[in-house]
Specification:
18 helices; alpha+beta; 38% helix; seven-stranded mixed beta sheet; globular; five-stranded parallel beta sheet
Length: 508
């Protein structure tokens, strides 16, 4: 039986294993093994309960406009557990000039908002007349400043980038991070013109989309948190997932046989995986689905240049402080509010642009976003620290991070009460940073992988940091892996595939 080894049991590796198992030929099945070095799968996706609080260590949801994710949820039988975010979660805020401002979601609200100055609003409205792109791989900040002005770039775009990537908008590549936005400008020359064109297109297909039950793009989770998805995948894969099993080395069979003076059979397995506390494992294909740093270390003996290319993908560390409060908590000036609204019970949370004072990147009001996240009469928040702007934050002690979180909540919300519950989580590896030149790096990685047939990479280090992106990549990559295995079993097919340009070692 053909064997495929996946190194890394995060959401990317698990989704890929499910896709390989589902798409492989029943008459010639593939033996899929997922090696996860920790005692649990899921990577950064992890949900824990403490004293009635449901705390997400990683992402707290996914947008339900992703067909691949919805299909996976359906196959796993999780539809009854799906939990949509509350309507209140649509209200989002930015802390600027000493107070919280609601981000406007309509033209009227935008006109009335004082988040941007009058001059800043005029500059944003002039977007259709902004100068065109000169550099095909510009930073997100340069793109935003060019199209909507520096004020909007600083107060709206930069904190949004911190919220998604924990990154620096001045170093991240627009094309790599937001390819759809890059394509919109390329095709229409203006974001406003692109939005009008897409709106017209949506009207033309609205009836068909309604009939198909098209997703609405709402933030969504599960009743037991995001852990429900991980647990369901692990159950579905069963013995294919080996927890607590660390891969410490990967060798190509031809290299080992040459070293020992053995003639390699072209039909023998191509790779040998060395495990930390278990016998070696043979594999016909290997997919590295862990972090870029982990994959780079494993690839160093195989291909130093490939290892350097993958190792060049930086990450931004992140610390998360979960805090539980009494719902009746009051600020120094009365109930915690902005504009007369109770923020704890009526909003998604807020982001903090650089230079505004608080050290936090932002705060999520989790018990407002989803029901059942805190005991009755309590609220749950999560404050985020670190990222590309402040990597040292992750090295602070629990006590220091807790003090900083409380100081920032007092500064932004006037909240002075002591928390009834707290939990500190650190992600020292953090979120991959698609810096300028990322696409060129991916092209180099793909060309180098082509020299090692049967070797692939997957996961959020390459073409999307979100869970939805990892799941969307699973089926296409699984098909490429299966095609490569079939081509090896049937050389004539390999010859035809190579001539037709279909034999590809892809970066997921």
């Amino acid at each position: 039986m053909t064997r495929v080894a996946i190194v890394g049991g995060g959401i990317g590796g698990l989704a890929l294993a499910e896709a390989l198992d589902r798409l492989s030929d029943a008459a010639d099945p593939v033996d899929v093994i997922v090696f996860e070095r920790s005692d649990r799968a899921g990577g950064n996706i992890r949900t824990e309960r403490f004293d009635g609080y449901l705390c997400e260590r990683g992402p707290n949801g996914f947008l339900d406009n992703a067909p691949a994710t919805l299909a996976l949820v359906g196959r796993l039988g999780l539809a009854p557990l799906v939990l949509s975010s509350n309507d209140a979660a649509r209200r989002r805020f930015v802390f600027a000039r000493g107070r919280l401002h609601e981000i406007p979601t309509s033209v009227t609200a935008f006109a009335r908002s004082d988040l941007l100055s009058f001059r800043g609003k005029l500059r944003l409205l002039a977007e259709p007349f902004a100068r065109g792109r000169v550099d095909p791989d510009e930073s997100i900040h340069d793109f935003a400043a060019r199209r909507i002005g520096r004020e909007a770039a600083a107060l709206l775009v930069d904190p949004m980038v911190s919220g998604i990537f924990a990154g620096d908008s001045r170093t991240l590549s627009l094309r790599a991070c937001f390819p759809k936005m890059w394509e919109m400008e390329t095709r229409y020359g203006s974001l406003v013109r692109a939005m009008f064109a897409r709106r017209r297109a949506r009207r033309r297909v609205a009836a068909a989309e309604s009939a198909l039950g098209a997703p609405a793009g709402r933030l969504t989770s599960f009743r037991g948190g995001m852990q429900d998805l991980v647990d369901a995948l692990v159950r579905a894969l069963g013995h294919r997932v080996r927890l607590g099993t660390s891969v410490v080395g990967i060798h190509e069979r031809a290299e080992l046989d040459a070293h020992h003076g053995i003639r390699t059979d072209t039909r023998s397995t191509r790779f040998v995986l060395t495990l930390e506390d278990a016998p070696p494992v043979d594999a016909d294909a290997v997919i590295l689905a862990g972090s870029a740093a982990q994959s780079s270390r494993l690839l160093q003996p195989v291909d130093a240049r490939l290892a350097r290319a993958i190792g060049g993908i930086a990450t931004a560390p992140l610390a998360v402080v979960c805090l539980g409060f009494d719902a009746a908590s009051r600020s120094q000036s009365g109930p915690v509010n902005a504009g007369g609204h109770n923020l704890i019970a009526d909003g998604f949370g807020f982001l903090v642009p650089r230079g505004e004072g608080p050290r936090a990147l932002g705060v999520l009001w989790d018990s407002s976003i989803y029901s059942g996240r805190a005991p009755h009469g309590r609220v749950l928040m999560r404050a985020m620290f670190g990222g590309a702007h402040d990597p040292e934050a992750v090295t602070l002690s629990d006590a220091e991070l807790l003090l900083q979180a409380r100081a920032d909540l007092q500064h932004t919300m006037g909240l002075t009460d002591a928390p009834l519950f707290s939990l500190v989580v650190r992600h020292r590896v953090g979120i991959p940073q698609y810096t300028i030149g990322h696409q060129s790096r991916l092209d180099l990685i793909a060309s180098l992988l082509h020299l090692h047939p049967g070797l692939f990479v997957a996961g959020h280090s390459y073409r999307g940091v979100s869970m939805n992106a990892c799941i969307a990549d699973a089926d296409p990559l699984a098909r490429r892996v299966l095609d490569a295995l079939a081509a090896r079993r049937y050389p004539a097919v390999e010859s035809i595939g190579a001539a037709g340009g279909h034999r590809v070692c892809s970066v997921a």
